[in-house]
Amino acid sequence: ELPHDLFTQVTHFYEEIGNYNKFLQAKLFLIGTLFNQQKYEQCQEHLEKLAVFFEENRHLIDTSVLLDYFHMQALIFSATGDYDHAVQSLEYGISLAKQHSLYKKHVRYLQLSCFVYSQLHDEKKVFETLTKFKYYTEFSKNLYEIGFYDYANFFVQNRFSKHSITESLVLYIDDAKKLSNYTISPIFTQELAYSYWKTNDYVKVIETLEHYSIPNHITHPLDVAGCLEMLAIRAYCYNEIGKREQAIEEIIDTYQRIKHF
Fold first, then answer.
1. Of the candidates 219, 221, 215, 216, which has an alpha carbon nearest to the alpha carbon of residue 33?
2. How far apart are CA 19 and CA 183, in angstroms?
């Protein structure tokens, strides 16, 4: 928990001396802390209070801080299912970064955009964003950013392409396991299971998800929804291969999680 009284004094001090960059960064830090605690309504309240300040002083704020602000907006809008406003924040941030040739924080915009456009079933925008994401990682050559792109690519192909990506995913996961400086994320396993499910290979789905549970570090509702989808798919596959009792147990448990989601 943050010492709110002290934090309020700090933000008030920055505002009083006219250091609006530090003021906004401090506010975003507070909102980010609440976001990590999944207190999305409080995040929205803080953003609404910031709106007037932002409109009056945005010309005094560094572009880098503005990009943090719009990304935080997009995270919160997408967490609460307001995808249209999330898109507005993302598109404005991407445009701003391009205008100022400031691409250091670009990857997080592109990654979130892929998932938000997917929620809106905007196939054209999804693939446009994916192409930009690919070009960006070819430029950055950052191993972790390439990993983010690879996952986004598998996610999009799984949901919008009619072609199976199972073989590509298996090879990718096997190759990643051989790298000493790279740990493969369980989200790739999710996509592998999804690809098996698309081809009605129910036994393979269950084998892939045999020890699967929602990773503790996944908290954003979009990501959690993807994990819950895996549990529902596993239940579906149990039923398809005749394990009805396991299917019922699994789907009831998943439904209870969704009720509180």
1. 219
2. 41
* d(C-alpha 229, C-alpha 94), whole Å: 30
Both structure tokens of 61: 């704020």
Residue pointed to by tokens 């199976």: 164
227-251 tens-digit pLDDT: 999 999 999 999 999 999 999 999 9
What ranges in 37-122 are assigned the alpha helix state H?
Answer: 40-57, 63-79, 83-99, 106-119
Give the dihedral sign, CA 47/52/53/56. positive
- Give the total residue count for the chain: 261
- pLDDT band at 186; cut points 50, 70, 90: confident
> Following DSSP, what letter does each residue of 166-212 receive, concatenated?
HHHHHHHHHHHHT-TT----HHHHHHHHHHHHHTT-HHHHHHHTTT-
Token pair listed for 163: 């072609």
Helices and strands in the chain: count of H runs, count of E runs: 13, 0
Q: Of the ranges 143-152, 177-186, 211-220, which is most confident? A: 143-152
Contact 169, 201 (CB under 8 A): no
- Supply the Cα-derived Rg of the chain in whole angstroms: 21
If you search the block for the tokens 């290979």, which residue do you land on?
Answer: 201
Q: Evaluate whether 89 touches 108 at the Cβ level (below 8 Å).
A: no
Amino acid at 168: S
Do 196 and 204 touch, CB atoms closer than 8 A? Answer: yes
> Tens of pLDDT along 99-134?
988 887 888 999 999 999 999 999 999 999 999 999
- 55-99: pLDDT as tens digits: 889 899 999 999 999 999 999 999 999 999 999 999 999 999 999
